[in-house]
Amino acid sequence: MGSFGGKVWSNDTIKNQPVIFVHGLTLRAGVFIPHYYWFLNKGYSPGELYATTYADGGITPFWSKPMYCADVKQVRNFIKQVHEYTNSSVDVIGYSMGTAISRKALLGGKCVDTGEDLGPPLTDIVDTFIGVAGVARGYEQCPTTFPACNLINGMNCGSRYLEDVNGQDKKYEAQNSYYIYSMGDTVIGTQCCGHLCPEVKNADGFSQYRVHNHGSILTETKDIQYEMIVNHKVIQPRGAF
C-alpha cells in the first residue's frame, strides 16, 4: 500500500491529534496497516491516521539507498499538509530509517546533499514525536563503501546528515519526544559513535526492551506508543521483553 489517511466525509470532526507514520528503508506505508486498525479500535478515525510512501518503496536495494533530500522534502510536505488539512497539531511516529528522515523533515534547514533550504523547524505543529527502532544516531554495521552508508547523507554515524540532526542544542522534533528500542535489535545495532544508535537526543524519555527484534519492537509496542502520544507517559516493559 502506497498511502492511507483522510476523512471519510468532508464534515468529519477531528477529535484526536492526527498521527503520521513514517516507514523505514525498503518498506512502504502499508507496514503500518496493523497500527491503523489498532488505533481505530482505540477510538481514532480514518481522518486521524496517515502514512505515505517516500522514495521508491523498496525497489532500490537496501545498501544502495542513502537519505536523499527528496525523501525528506516529501515527508516534510506531508506533515505540513496533514496539519493544514486537519487544522490540528499532529503526532509523528518514525520507524527505523523513518526516524532519521522524520527528524530532518522536522528540523528543516539545509539539506546536506543538495544545499536546499527546507525552512524553519516544524516544532510548533507537532505535539509528540516517537522514534521506534530508529536510525537516530546511526546504523552500527555501516561500511562507507556502500551508498547507504556514505559520509554525506548515509546512515553511518559519522555522516553529515546525522551530525546535522544530532548537532542541535535543544529538542526540535516536537513539544514531546520519545524513543523505543530493543537491545536485541541486531539490525540497527546499539553502538554508534559513542552513543546508543536509536537514541533521540534531548528526548523526554524512552522505553527499553531486551529481546524484541527489529520487526517486533514496532509491532508489539503499539500500547507503549499510544501512551506516549495520548498521555505523554513512558511505560517500561515487565518481564523478559
From TrEMBL:
Report the InterPro entries cross-referenced here. Answer: AB_hydrolase_fold (IPR029058), Lipase_EstA/Esterase_EstB (IPR002918)
Cross-referenced Gene3D superfamilies: alpha/beta hydrolase
Query: Which GO terms label this protein's molecular function in UniProt?
Result: lipase activity
GO BP terms: namely:
lipid catabolic process
Query: One of this protein's Pfam families, by short name?
Result: Lipase_2
The record ties this protein, via PANTHER family, to: FASTING INDUCED LIPASE, LIPASE
Question: What is the protein name for this chain?
Answer: Triacylglycerol lipase
Q: Which organism is it from?
A: Panagrolaimus davidi
